[in-house]
Design goal:
The structure is a single chain. This protein is mainly beta and about 130 residues long. The chain has a single domain (about 1-20, about 35-125), classed as Jelly Rolls (Sandwich), CATH 2.60.120. About 10% of the residues lie in helices and about 45% in strands. The chain is built from 1 helix and 8 strands; from the N terminus they run ββββββββα. It has one helix at about 110-125, and strands at about 1-5, 10-15, 15-20, 35-40, 65-75, 80-85, 90, 95-110. The strands form 2 sheets. Strands 1, 4, 5, 6, 7 and 8 form a 6-stranded antiparallel β-sheet that branches. Strands 2-3 form a two-stranded antiparallel sheet. The chain starts with a strand and ends with a helix.
Length: about 130
């Protein structure tokens, strides 16, 4: 699920202030503490081999985020792909892989327990 900034409904606009809001953008109930993450990613990075060994060979943490620059494509367990670009908000549910199409910087908010497991797995994969 993603949405471009100009597609987010303007809820308030007064001189010097524009507030946009898109409701029901993923569900965070019961996920505990959240981590704020800043990723810098080079074009060509593909998480598919790194996530091997995780359930479904995919990241099992949901993420909410914003693309500062670049372009990324996610693929879910059913093979459905979705591309996000600069200025898009996104929600990636559990069960995804990511390919970086163009050098990217993203800010994400993730449940720290679930994403911690994924990051530990990544560290193990890259230490080989």
């Amino acid at each position: 699920m993603h949405i471009a900034k100009d597609k987010i409904e303007v809820k308030m606009q007064v001189p010097g202030v524009v507030i946009r809001q898109h409701r029901n953008f993923g569900d965070a109930r019961g996920l505990g503490g959240f981590a704020c993450e800043y990723f810098s990613l080079d074009a060509g990075v593909d998480t598919t081999p790194l996530f091997r060994g995780l359930q479904g060979n995919a990241c099992q943490s949901p993420h909410w985020g914003y693309v500062l620059r670049g372009q990324l494509t996610t693929t879910d367990g059913a093979g459905v792909q979705e591309t996000v670009r600069a200025n898009d908000l996104f929600y990636w549910p559990p069960g995804h892989n990511v390919r970086v199409d163009a050098d990217a910087e993203i800010v994400m908010f993730s449940p720290q327990h679930e994403h911690g497991i994924v990051i530990e797995h990544l560290l193990g994969q890259t230490a080989r």
